[in-house]
Design brief:
Layout: E1 4-10, E2 14-20, E3 26-33, E4 45-46, H1 48-66, E5 73-80, E6 86-88, E7 98-99, H2 107-116, H3 119-126, H4 135-145, H5 147-152, E8 155-157, H6 159-167, E9 173-175, H7 176-180, E10 185-186, E11 191-192, H8 194-199, E12 209-211, E13 216-219, H9 222-228, E14 235-241, H10 242-249, E15 256-262, E16 266-272, E17 285-287, E18 294-300, H11 304-314, H12 316-325, H13 329-337, E19 348-350, E20 368-370, H14 378-402, E21 407-413, H15 420-430, E22 434-437, H16 442-454, H17 461-468, E23 471-475, H18 479-501, H19 504-514
Parallel strand pairs: 1-5, 5-14, 9-12, 15-21, 21-22
Antiparallel strand pairs: 1-2, 2-3, 4-7, 6-8, 10-11, 13-14, 15-16, 16-18, 17-18, 19-20, 22-23
Helix pairs in contact: 2-4, 10-16, 11-14, 12-13, 14-15, 15-18, 16-17
Length: about 525
């Protein structure tokens, strides 16, 4: 009987389920979208029960579409959005909606940590710069503003351990890579730092158990089999945070190769054999999905989400045409973007629609167009968004290089790698060759590779990646465009600094909250 593995990517805006053979060929792929809610300015929440229901429905469809006997699927691995925290009771029921990683309400808690622990000490322990994205700030927000939720919470969990438990795992297990972004884990020991939890007033018993990625934790239960379509007894393997999974699925498992994922979020990730901290404390040092290894990464809170925002709010003619003619609306938008010269006739976009993570770590930053004039149209806006998101990624790459990381090849994954237009924009802005992958969903492929490793189908991650990862096309940079982009890149950075240092962003947010 042939052997297959399944990767499940539970993201911010939807769940993707893919089934692969041992050569990395996708046998089937299904996707279901779901929403976030926005109760107040800067707040982003999500219904945890809904994400589980969508996971069940999408898994059933993927198995049906594959035509496989579910028993041929040996193991399941998860790639999950990081830092989206749900407080649960002892029966696993959510006590309220999850606070999303995109949520920026906990800026006061960031200041509390600075006062109690200190930024340098916090970074030294956790490897992460302080910011509202970290789960610790969300847990502290509940404790301060909703103490009844904190007290009644059995555990504060992410999608990884919650979904694995629902599938059949006894207990709640968090892999090291997701644990990194709690902001409570010792980055060298891969353990919860008990002294840090004590300082911040968080009960460590309310945190899940930490384990490495690629570890068999249980098997699909009879009840879960009925809900999902998987065979009872299928192995359940600890996966990783979505971006660490993307690192594996894109081949960023050795020096010289980094990956840039342009999904809802944008993440730039590079492998590290040691826990090297950034002297400026701007770049995170997190646990890789490769057990006992690390990665440097830069998080962008709204990458593909910014382009999707444009699609939803401005691309009405393209959406209507796409629906009428059975086309992809993004292909139609790309056709317009190609007609706009690099630099968008002097229009720059600061892509902080969900505040700024790396490298600024500014919870108050907001999306901004700079340079509008009467000659600009929707196509200029669309291209400026892609360029702005890529400028932010370049800031991260430049920081990695300044910290000693070698960058020879940039592998592109996520929705942003599907269109040739954005791939070429990235190559031109980075000034480096950019490689698209046969499976753009590197997060899901990475989860499947971890499933295969856990099931013992490969000896190590290098063998698995060599067998299952396929590259598609290399985009060489246009160095003339790169020279022009260098000028706009400097203006891009100056624009943010001017608005931030003048307190514009902070005043806007606080004015909107206080009304």
């Amino acid at each position: 009987m042939s052997k297959y593995v399944c990767g499940i990517d539970i993201g911010t805006t939807g769940v993707k389920v893919m089934i692969f053979d041992m050569d990395g060929t996708a046998i089937s792929s299904t996707y279901s979208e779901y929403p976030c809610t926005f109760p107040q300015t800067g707040w982003v929440e999500q219904d945890g029960n809904m994400t589980w229901q969508r996971t069940c429905e999408t898994s059933k469809k993927a198995i049906e579409k594959s035509g496989l006997d579910p028993k041929e699927i040996v193991a399941i691995g998860l790639s999950t959005q990081r830092c989206t925290v749900t407080p649960i009771d002892k029966d696993g029921n959510p006590l309220c909606d999850a606070i999303s990683w995109q949520d920026s309400r906990s800026f006061e808690e960031v200041e509390d940590i600075k006062r109690i622990v200190g930024e340098e000490k916090f970074y030294e322990i956790t490897g992460y710069p302080l910011g509202t994205v970290l789960s610790v700030t969300e847990i502290m927000w509940w404790k301060k503003h909703k103490p009844e939720i904190y007290e009644n919470a059995y555990l504060f969990v992410l999608d990884q351990e919650r979904v694995l438990h629902n599938l059949g795992v006894e207990g709640y297990y968090q892999d090291w890579s997701n644990g990194s972004l709690y902001g409570l884990m010792d980055i060298r020991k891969f353990e919860w730092d008990v002294e840090l939890t004590k300082q911040l007033g968080i009960d460590p018993d309310k945190l899940p158990q930490l384990v490495p990625s690629g570890k068999v934790l249980g098997k699909v239960s009879k009840e879960a089999a009925e809900l999902t379509g998987f065979a009872e007894g299928t192995l359940l393997v600890s996966g990783a945070g979505d971006q660490q999974c993307a690192g594996i699925g894109a081949g960023a498992i050795k020096d010289g190769v980094i990956e840039v994922t342009m999904g809802t979020a944008g993440v730039t990730l590079g492998y590290m054999g040691q826990a090297n901290l950034d002297p400026s404390m701007k770049m995170p040092c997190a646990a890789h999905a490769i057990a006992g290894k690390w990665e440097s990464e830069g998080l962008q809170n709204a990458a593909g989400a910014a382009f999707k925002w444009y699609r939803n709010e401005f691309a009405f003619p393209e959406a209507q045409k796409a629906a009428a003619e059975g086309l992809d609306v993004y292909d139609l938008i790309d056709e317009q973007i190609e007609q706009v010269e690099p630099g968008c006739n002097g229009l720059i976009f600061l892509p902080y629609l969900a505040s700024s993570a790396a490298p600024n770590w500014d919870a108050f930053a907001r999306g901004t167009f700079v340079g509008f004039n009467l000659g600009h149209g929707r196509a200029d806006m669309a291209r400026a968004i892609l360029e702005g998101v890529t400028f932010e990624a370049r800031e991260i790459i430049d920081r990695m290089i300044s910290n000693g990381m070698v960058v020879n090849e940039i592998c592109l994954s996520g929705g942003g790698s599907k269109g040739a237009v954005w791939c070429q924009i990235q190559a031109d802005i980075y000034g480096k060759p950019c490689t698209s992958l046969d499976v753009e969903e590197a997060t899901t492929l990475g989860a499947a590779i971890l499933a295969a490793l856990g099931a013992g189908l490969f000896d190590d991650v290098e063998q698995a990646v060599d067998k299952m990862l396929k590259r598609k096309k290399v985009y060489e940079p246009n160095m003339e465009n790169h020279a022009l982009y260098n000028k706009y890149f400097e203006l891009y950075k100056k624009s943010y600094q001017a608005l931030s240092s003048a307190g514009i962003y902070e005043d806007l947010v606080k004015t909107a909250l206080n009304k």
